[in-house]
Amino acid sequence: MTFRMPLALAAALLLAACNPGAQVADAKVEIEALQALYNKGDAKAFYDAGGDTLHKAAPREQLEEIMALIDARLGKIRSSKQTGFNTAFKNGATLTTITMQTSFERGEGMETYLFEGSGKDMKLAGWNVNSPLLNLSPEDVKKLTEDKGKAAR
């Protein structure tokens, strides 16, 4: 009996930490803030909202370039609707993935946000935007190839 009580308490605390409803609600608050930063063109603040995982994956300059490309191809966000989510507890970390169908000024895209942590400790770990308008055309590839050739000289 005395062994079961601490075990039940530990299980209850773990379950509370991994409450999918709370995780999704916290992530949606973060997403609204991140989308506002994207629309302002504030890559620095967007990057600063990220956690260690995001910072290890890409330097600030790379995120600035990605945001500039997305803005050039798709424009500002007009509206966004959650289409999916997943929460998991892996290797001692709480992970929350939210998928958003997003309408931009010049087309549609699918945003995927990955967060680590819970509540006030929730940090952006990854952000992906998928849209046909982000695919490279043959002209884009040719220009990139020419630019690299010029830079190598």
Task: Please count the helical segments.
Answer: 6
Average of per-residue pLDDT values = 87
Structural class: alpha+beta
Give the overall shape, derived from the CA principal axes: globular
Task: Tag the structure with descriptive keywords.
single chain, 153 residues, alpha+beta, 4-stranded antiparallel beta sheet, 6 helices, 4 strands, 50% helix, globular
Describe the protein in words.
The longest helix has 21 residues, at 20-40. By secondary structure, the chain is α+β, with helices and mostly antiparallel strands. Residues 5-16 have low confidence and may be disordered. The radius of gyration is 19 Å and the shape is globular. The chain has helices at 4-17, 20-40, 43-48, 52-57, 60-74, 138-152; strands at residues 77-90, 93-104, 107-116, 123-130. The chain starts with a helix and ends with a helix. 18% of the residues are buried.
